[in-house]
Design a protein that fits this description.
The longest helix has 25 residues. The chain is built from 15 helices and 19 strands. It is an alpha/beta fold.
């Protein structure tokens, strides 16, 4: 029996833009995803946009009962900035205020710990049109938005989160074109990363001042980096990959400062952001209370085969090549390696290098296509998902036994949800969503997860 510590949290994570949907008269403003889908629907799998998400806005009371039915003791969702403040920095939408209060009250009434994320890749389009995260004005608008949330919902939220996976928005928005504005602009990307970190630190300060005693953190996707070999060139490649992928937000969020090697690299490419010394003091003095860690797959790298083209725009992976480990276990649907010991390695690094800060595994999950083919007697038999979860929990349990300060496990996700450009291509939920009629059906993994939560562990 793998038994977890008393009061260990069991639940799932989701986000407002991926499940809420829109209905006529809800007064929600457009965010970048709403706008982008209107402009280029062909970019999105099966041309399904964010308005066709899991209708949580209309079905949340029934969906909260499904959280209970699947054993949730914790639930993480997000507030949509563009729903609460449609213009980004103007008037508050009273309908959104009422919706989120009802939602949060419903979660608390069911005895579920509530974690609320302030930002999940969903910038109000009005702010994007003014320059987005490359402008200091957006930082100030976010600080105001965060304060409005603290004032409106501080009595209901147990833990606050500033940003989800901020490095993804930087990489995908300014290097690899999977998020709007889908530009290749390293200078803008570095500025966006810096202002995002500053905004996070300002939200931490506001939370600590207005809601003393409440914890606030940041969620980072920490893909452990493994070099191809012990050769010095491969080792260097791994070190630099980790600087960009993880430490660019991990160090300033937890330690209050950036790694000097990363600053030096950025300076060598003439990419240093505009900043003020007082902003660096804000980052230094307002570190997070806990970490959310999202883990899906490792990052394996090797020394680059080729020299950098001096005429090419800068990309972080000019310092490393991605490396596919021969014979590794894969999720063939998502194309990601499944490497359970990665979560153990993350836990040990946090324990050793980040003062064993309190953390929660806030995302871990397996996306699978065409899950209907696994249905037997009306229930999707997703044993592969159960095995995926168990494999990672074995490694997490091992780390906790050795002193890792992990407080919970949140699966991605409780119900099949819309996922950016992939829309509904891959399904991750404990609960199946039928897009044709919006009906919900618990999968085998959902029943298993309830048992996991009730036992506070499982048998291998």
């Amino acid at each position: 029996m793998k038994e977890f510590p008393k009061n260990f949290l069991w639940g799932s994570s989701t986000s407002g833009p991926q499940i809420e949907g829109r209905i006529a008269g809800d007064d929600k403003g457009d965010n970048t995803w709403d706008y982008w889908f209107k402009q280029e629907p062909a970019r999105f799998h099966a041309q399904i946009g964010p308005d066709q998400t899991s209708s949580f806005y209309s079905h949340f009371e029934d969906d909260l009962d499904l959280l209970v039915a699947t054993g949730h003791t914790a639930f993480r969702t997000s507030i949509q900035w563009s729903r609460l403040i449609p213009s980004g920095d103007g008037a508050v939408n009273s309908k959104a205020l009422a919706f989120y209060r009802s939602l949060f009250q419903g979660i608390k009434a069911r005895g579920i710990e509530l974690l609320v994320n302030l930002y999940h890749f969903d910038l109000p389009m009005t702010l994007e049109q003014k320059g987005g995260w490359s402008c200091y004005e957006t930082v100030l608008a976010y600080e105001r938005y965060a304060m409005i949330c603290f004032e409106a919902f501080g009595d209901l939220v147990d833990r606050w989160i500033t940003f989800n996976e901020p490095i993804v928005a930087v990489e995908c928005g300014f290097f690899y074109q999977y998020h709007y504005p889908a530009r290749i602009d390293a200078k803008a990307g570095v500025q966006v990363a810096y202002y995002t970190q500053l905004a996070s630190s300002l939200a931490v300060r506001a939370c600590h001042n207005y809601l003393p005693g409440k914890k606030i953190g940041i969620i980072l996707n920490l893909s452990p980096v493994y070099p191809r070999s012990q050769h010095p060139a491969d080792q260097k490649a791994a070190r630099i990959a980790e600087l960009f992928q993880a430490k660019s937000f991990l160090d300033p969020s937890v330690k209050g400062s950036y790694p000097q090697e990363l600053v030096t690299l950025i300076a060598e490419h003439n990419l240093l952001p505009a900043y003020q010394s007082k902003d660096l003091d804000v980052i230094k003095d307002n570190t997070v209370d806990f970490l959310g860690v999202n883990y899906y797959h490792p990052l394996r790298v090797a020394a680059p085969k080729y020299q950098i083209n001096p005429e090419s725009p800068f990309f972080p992976d000019c310092y490393y090549d991605h490396y596919d480990l021969p014979g590794c276990k894969m999720n063939p649907y998502r194309g990601w390696e499944i490497y359970e010991p990665g979560i153990y390695d993350i836990a040990k690094q946090i324990q050793k290098d980040y003062d064993n800060i309190e953390w929660i595994l806030t995302e871990n999950g397996m996306g699978v296509e065409e899950e209907e083919s696994f249905k037997v007697d009306g229930v999707i038999q997703d044993d592969y998902r159960i095995d995926f979860i168990k494999g990672h929990l074995v490694e997490l349990h091992r780390a906790i036994q050795e002193g890792a300060n992990c407080k919970g496990y949140l699966l991605w996700t409780f119900i099949d949800c819309w996922s950016w450009l992939n829309a509904y291509k891959n399904r991750y939920g404990l609960i199946a969503l039928d897009l044709s009629d919006q009906s919900r059906h618990i999968k085998k993994s959902g029943y298993w997860f309830k048992n996991l939560s009730q036992l506070n562990g499982f048998e291998e």
